[in-house]
Amino acid sequence: MLYVVKGPRKIRKKRKFAKIVLFLFFAAALVVIIPLRNIINEYLFQSVPEIYCLKITSTSEKSKDIANALSHFKNSPASEKPKGVQHKCGLKKSCPRGTFAFNMKTGAANVLPPKMCFNGETIMSSSMKNTGEGLNIAVINARTGDVMRTGAFNMWLGDIVSLEPFLEAIEENTVVLIVTFDDGSTKMTDKARGLIAELGSSAINKLAFRDNWVFAGGKGISGKSPFEQHIKNNRSNNKYENWPELLEMEGCLPQKLD
Q: pTM higher than 0.70, yes or no?
């Protein structure tokens, strides 16, 4: 039997050929993998919404409302920091002696809670954990400007049995501030409307489902308060589809001096 022994030269040629084949294989794999990776990244990591939209990706109507509300709040003049001299509650001018500065905002849709500032101090806000959906009410001493009590009453799902006693307990010589958040009227009773009307409101009897309303009045006021704004919930005109736009009111309330 004859054995043929391969020489070292032939072995080296085969090894070199195997390396070339292996190199070409990896090169071809890279040509396929790199574009595929880019396609995957583009699909999985599409542009992420800004943080003020809470990264909402749902296309439901409610999500659109929330995104719109937050976007409007972020870009509205009311949310910008005041420039130059800062007056109480962010007013452009100082209030005259014998008056209290105030600024009030309703909630935006059912997302952003309301906020109240009185005499330079925030008295109701989400960070203070004393606001809620429905009616948000602050009772203030008209002589000193001190907050006597606050209350939030859910007018859609909550138990509002305590609303009427809260309104009945409001004393003379007080300032009363009220703002809505989401729905402020569904469970409103005629008696409660009457008690608020006695504080100087002219819009309370027209307040309906998801209307926005902001009001400043007081117990024993003569006539109707000039500090009141009301906007109807009308889907054809709403800012946020199912909710009207946010209302903001500011000014100088007279101090009780006698």
A: no
